[in-house]
Design brief:
It contains 11 helices and 8 strands. It is α/β, with parallel strands linked by helices. The chain has one domain: Rossmann fold. An 8-stranded mixed β-sheet has the order 3-4-2-5-1-6-7-8, sandwiched between helices. The radius of gyration is 18 Å and the shape is globular. The relative contact order is 0.18. Bound molecules: adenosine-5'-diphosphate and magnesium ion. Magnesium ion binds next to helix 1 and strand 5.
Length: 276
Amino acid sequence: MTLVALCSFKGSPGVTTAALGLAARWPAGELPVVVECDEAGGDLLARFRLETSPGLVSLAAAVRRGAEPGLVWQHTQRLPGGLPVVAGPAGPEQAHAALAHITSAGAAVLRRAADRPGTVVVADCGRLGPSSAALGILRAADVVLLLARSHDDSLSHVVANLDVAARWPWHPSFVLVGGGYPTSEVASTLGIEVIGRLPEDRHGAAALGGRPGRRSTPTQSPLGRALARIAAVAASRASTEPGGKQQVADSLEADPGSLSAGRRSSPHKSWEGVSR
Ligand SMILES: Nc1ncnc2c1ncn2[C@@H]1O[C@H](COP(=O)(O)OP(=O)(O)O)[C@@H](O)[C@H]1O
Ligand SMILES: [Mg+2]
C-alpha cells in the first residue's frame, strides 16, 4: 500500500544502502520490493552479481503494453537474503531511457504496484538533479526520504536546493547520515523536517551491500537498526497520510503556494550560521 522514494543531492551517498536496509527492515505486514530508479546507473547488478535481465529495462519495455499491478514483480530478481529487487542498468543512458518510460505515465506502474494491499515499493531514486526523470516517481510517492550527510559540503547542497524543493508538490523528510552537525540544529536552521539519523557504519553498510562480515549482519547492525526505526516512522506516516497522488492533487488544488518542502515560514539562514 506504500510507495517510498529515497534520494539525495550531490555530496550525500548511501541511498542504495539505505533503500535495501529500509526494505529489509520494513514492518511486518507489507512485502517489500526495491526498484532501482537511479538515473546515474544502478549499483545492484554489479554489487550482487545479478543477471542483466529481468530488471528496470525489461520493466520499462513492458510498461508500453500496460501497467497492471503485478508487473513490477515480474521483473524482479532476488538478492541472496531473499529481497526482491528490480535492478537498474549500470549505464546512465540506458537508465535514463528506462526511467523516462516508467515515469511517462506518472510512474503508474510503481503506483499500481504500491497500491496492492500488503506491498511496499521502495524506489531508489539516487541523486536528484533539476530535471531528473526520477522526479516523476517522487511525485507519485507516499513518502519521500532525502538523505543528507550532516557536514558543510553536503548541507550546502541541501541549502542550494531548498528553493527548488519548495516548489515540489510533496514534502520530503530528511534523513541525516553519519556524524557532523547535530540533528536539531540542522532541522531548525534549515527549517526542514528530519525524521531520523543513520550512523556511519562501514560494516553494517557492507553487510547490506552483500558483503556480510563476522562483525555485522545486514539487519542487526547499528545501521540496520536505525533503518528499522526510520522504516517504522515512514510506514506509520504512509498509513496516516493518503496516497501520494491524491495528496498532491488535493494540495495543489488547495494552495499551490503552500507546497513548501516541510519548511517553516521563515527563509533559511545561511548554512555558515550553524555552530557545532
Ligand atoms: N551509513 C553508512 N556508513 C558507512 N558507509 C556507508 C553508509 N551508507 C553507505 N555506505 C557506503 O558508501 C558507499 C556508497 O553507498 P551506496 O549506498 O551505494 O550510495 P549511493 O547509492 O548513494 O551511490 C558504499 O560502499 C556503502 O557501503
Ligand atoms: Mg545507488
